[in-house]
Design goal:
The protein is 30% helix and 30% strand. The chain is an alpha+beta fold. It has one domain (33-198).
Length: 209
């Protein structure tokens, strides 16, 4: 065999091995769920409001998602994301920033003149129906399930074949749907207490017409 060909092949093999090692060494490693919970708890402490607590931490393919809620009301306060490679925590995009009337961009900057009310024109049951109508068209075979109420909107877990598929939000005033497209595939969850029924939105039967 030609010595030049052998040499070229050896060089390619070495380059391939070096490339694999470089990817292994320099590709960011994902922090685990325990570390993510530590980040979430440190943020809770730094937030400085004893009424704010962690409701749930969900691990997705692309990030960790954290719900914070008000212990005094049971209403969701705000949603945060944790970068899986750096551990940085930051406000979730979309509804959490744009529709949150108390802890979002408007509320945190004093955009409201009176304290925002938990009462919205669109109730929890209706928001779930709106979400299901959207899912039937956009993601056939998925179901709108668990509803979390926030000031100004609802965030709803979406399932498929009995497993979490994703989530979306419904504006509590005009019914606009905003699907959370930034999470990737669902992996696992950690709920912070067993008292979920005291904090999640309670559904009431729809009136018969």
């Amino acid at each position: 065999m030609d010595a030049k060909i052998v040499a070229a092949g050896a060089i390619l093999i070495v380059a391939g091995v070096v490339g694999i090692l470089a990817l292994t060494l320099f590709t960011p490693q994902s922090i685990g769920l325990d570390a993510a919970e530590g980040v979430a708890r440190r943020y809770q402490a730094q937030f400085g409001d004893p009424d704010i607590a962690i409701d749930e931490i969900m691990e997705f393919e692309l990030n960790y998602y954290v719900i914070y809620y008000e212990k005094s009301t049971g209403i969701g306060a705000f949603e945060m994301l944790i970068d899986k490679s750096t551990g940085n925590i930051f406000p979730e995009y979309g509804p959490n920033m744009m529709w949150n009337l108390k802890y979002g961009m408007g509320g945190m900057m004093g955009g409201w003149r009176t304290p925002p009310s938990a009462q919205m024109p669109i109730g929890g049951n209706e928001s779930k129906s709106i979400a299901q109508d959207y899912l039937n068209k956009a993601y056939p075979g998925t179901q709108a399930e668990e509803v979390h109420q926030f000031y100004g909107y609802y965030t709803i877990h979406v399932t498929k074949d009995g497993k979490i598929f994703g989530m979306l939000s419904v504006d509590g005033y005009d019914g606009v749907v905003w699907y959370h497209s930034w999470h990737g595939h669902y992996i696992q969850s950690r709920e912070e207490t067993a008292l979920l029924s005291l904090r999640k939105f309670t559904f009431f039967p729809l009136p018969i017409v």
